[in-house]
Amino acid sequence: MGIRGLTTYMNWSYWRQWRTIEVRGRLIIDAMSVCFVIHENNRIDWLHGGQYWELRQSYKRFITSLLESGIEPIVIFDGIDYTGKKSGVMLDRKESARQAISDILDKDDAESNSSTGSSASRLDKQHDFSKPAPSQGSTVIPLFAQAVFCETLRELGVRFVYADGDADSIIASIANYYSCPVVSNDSDFFFFNIRAGYIPFYNLHWEQQPVTAQVYYYLYFVDNFNFKSLEVPLLIPAILGNDYIEPLNSPCLRGDIAVTLLKYRERRGGTRSWRDKTHELILYFKNFSSPDEFLNCISRCCLRNEVSIVEKNLEIAKDFYTVNEFSIKDIMNKSEMTTSNGTALPLWMIQQLRNGQFSLSAMAPVVFNGSVLPNIIDNPKRRSAMFIGLPIRRCMYTILLPLLEESYVHETVSVDFEDGYSSIACNAANEYFRFNLPSITDMEKISISCRIDALCFSLECSSGILNWFEDKWKLVVLSLAFWTKYAVPDIHLIKSLILCFIVCSLDRDPSSHMPHSTDADSSQNNDTLHVFSMWQCVYHDTMKLNNVLMNPLSFTTPALLFDGRLAMYYASLADINNIVRSELVSSLQLLALFKSLMFVCTESLKAATKDGVQYDQTVYFNLVPVLISSDSDEDDDSVSDESDIFDYIYD
């Protein structure tokens, strides 16, 4: 995120100018940046699909330490990017994550096959599930990481809000309203004039009491490098680029920099790193009293189209890094949001979106008439686990139909590693006539029981069965029933997943339930991982549908449901029944819960057998490849005729 290499450069060249403070009072936190860096910093294993309890504990330690130091954190999440300007960058990141998943899991699979052979049994290979996986270079954020962070903040009573679009400028504006600093790991914040300063995450010493930090101030930066105006530093992102600005590749400009800094280069000597190039660019910009003077200079040495690109980039930078002042209340009170067809968004949807009770993934179809489905950590050699939730999403699109620009909702999904990303279309209009589902525009008038019935209908489960369970289990039950019917997993895996749910619900460290050395056949791990990933996808889509139906059922955080290593450990055991007895022997209530959940699954298996459902053999649609490009300004007009693109649509 931000400008490539800038944080490294600032830590190298500017460290003497950091001002150390004891952090007190309000502190604005960039949610998405911190959510990612905490996962990465704690080296939390992601290879098994998600260690959500461990991730939740990391979030709790961070927030609790701030609270104990007299800090009032205010957390701001990114919202929907209504402009679509960042879509290319986001798709590139998803592609990189998908590549990392494939590289590592394929490598593990190949090593397993070479060491155990094709005839290896379940118990042939030793694998220590109790220890974190070694660092794999690339970090992939599990599917529910953001939801876990959001629910953890709610649990701790911390104020948070979902903004509109990219939250960077909003975060800076809120910080100036409250006169407090910002914590992030995004180098874009080096160019916001935040009065109370910007604290890079690694400069926040939150594990000590009191919490201290090294703070960066934009005005100090301008003075330290002797920039002649506050706008001149904005030439840095205008040339190097960020998530919204393409970097300029100009041999002419590089030549002018080389001539201008010839004596400096002769003194320094040696090879030039990216950090050195950034430093040279800053030294070069110091020669200009204003951006206009710089533009006038390059107009004499650069091509006309390069000058035009710089002018355009500079205007984008000026707009992006402009800081206003407004409060959290101002964001919460913003009630005018429109959909892709120009219809005003219902107020309850806006309020729940702000409060983190309406998934951005559920909002995307309303805004764009399409959605880029999230990555899931699954077997890269099989079709994406995301496909299993398509019938649920069809029902969701049917409910949202009055807000859609057209009845075809376009999904972008990674089919598998070899095929990359493809586009699909669901015809919500056809489903509207087939399904007796409520309309989003009437949702406030519909009773809770009717909304629960709609949820159960969409997940092909009887609403009566929910009466057996506590509220916190009802949404889980629906996801289990659907997953069992469409994934048709082995009974052994069903028992493993349900036992994982119950053990995690006790809010204890899942690793305490795994001995230090266990037997597991890693050649089976990717297939087992894929089956469990399909449940995560189903629960994710169930959560979204629940949001669209005004949340008639409570959402249980995955941190109290799923731990990838624990589920994989249970799946590796030859005698799952014995471990069920040993884990649940002390509680008849938990044993009864296990049996009730198993009953739901066995009934779904019967329904799958009767209906002939099998996930891997179901052909939903033909797919059209999506070109991965970071050019956010690329026009989509090349895709003009849907009838030519989509050979098969739901009917």
TrEMBL record:
Residues 112-121 have a biased composition (Low complexity). Residues 108-136 are annotated as: Disordered. Gene3D superfamilies: 5'-nuclease. Belongs to the asteroid family. This is Uncharacterized protein. It comes from Amphimedon queenslandica (Sponge). The lineage of its organism: Eukaryota, Metazoa, Porifera, Demospongiae, Heteroscleromorpha.
